[in-house]
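Reviewers of the previous submission asked for a worked example of the structure-prediction workflow described in the proposal, so we include one complete record here. The input consisted solely of the amino acid sequence. No template or homolog information was supplied to the procedure at any stage.
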Amino acid sequence: MSKVCEICGKHKAFGGHITRRGLAKKKGGIGLHVVKNTKRTFSPNLQIIRALVNGSVVRMKVCTSCIRSNKVAKAGTATRTAQA
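From that input alone, the workflow returned the following structure tokens.
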């Protein structure tokens, strides 16, 4: 299963974690030195939700930023507002 948002296409991003060692110059040391630089991934916060798409309920993988910005209509809330 891919870790990609079905609405905006947000996917895994790659970066690095830099490990430094030593006492900072402003604390009286000779400065921080890089000891290790390891690769890491940043995963999007994906949620599997039931969404209303073209009148039918479909399960989708959507990131939380798309859910918060109302780019997708959740199935439970959309049917409740239609009945009211």
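Residues 13-83 form one domain. We consider this example representative of the routine output the project will generate in years two and three.
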